[in-house]
Write the structure tokens for this entry.
Amino acid sequence: MTKKKRIVSGMRPTGALHLGNYHGALSNWIHMQDSYDCFFFIADWHALTSDYENTAHIKACIRKMMIDWLGAGLSPDKSTLFVQSHIKCHAELFLLLSMITPLSWLERNPTYKEQIAELKNKDLSTFGFLGYPILQAADIIIYRAEGVPVGIDQAAHIEITREIARRFNYFYGYVFPEPETILTESAKILGTDRRKMSKSYENAIFLSDTPDAIRKRVATMITDPQRKKRNDPGDPDVCNVFSFHKSYSPVDMVKEIDQDCRRAAIGCVECKQKMAENLISALAPIREKTEYYHQHLDLVDDIIAQGNKAAAAEAERTMESVRKALKV
Ligand code: TRP
Ligand code: SF4
């Protein structure tokens, strides 16, 4: 058997995960567990780069997110699951890499400019925010990752990571593989209002939502905007409820709804109810598991502690080579 490829990826601790997170990243990670040597972590220091003023909620978010990871199917038996801030040598490597990273690489980072323009209510003209990609590079190469599964929005950061690894190896001798970007397909489903699903838009359905919460959420979903009256034929191809059906309903039902919608043989209310019930059934096993972990928080803390320990050992091993190469 050949050695499994090492991959590393992280998520900022946003708390409860929604279906967009699940279809965007988490389900991919879950599948990759069997064919890769996986390191998945909660990037809590990264949360500080933009939310440094109010940090009170971060700890609770870390636990909540780990519970959703476990409930959805990430497994400590298959992957190393840990919390960034517990592995202090990420910070050491971040410092060392910051010495060799040209400012221009950071200033031309497209997400840097975008976020500063977008998040006008926050003062992001900090050193930490500019240096974000260096921290991300440290997160990745400290495990000598060969691949990084991320969405397209993170591709520029992985490119900077590769450049930093290359520069380090050039100056001090080979230590780091250059990790490849493993692009995860973006989620096919949108929020209830047809915008990108996001906690801050209040258009999200969460993995941990109760059946009733799901029914209520689904009832508010925007359907085919052209279909105003019950007798108007609809177009499932532009309807977000139909996209959900495609993910959660049996193929026969999807086919039937496709036809019935086009000839106004089914109303949107009924169509949504059907979808909601299928979604609820699909999420039931996740909900059951997350509820179990919520009742066994000591187990969650144990899993985090063990993951931290394994990650720390691996990171420390790399740091020994780094210090040696740098002669510090
Ligand atoms: N920047 C990533 C995001 O906002 C999170 C992240 C931090 C990450 N460190 C990482 C992702 C290392 C992959 C690898 O989603
Ligand atoms: Fe969408 Fe279903 Fe209404 Fe058709 S019947 S527009 S698929 S919700």
Notes: The mean pLDDT is 96. The radius of gyration is 22 Å.
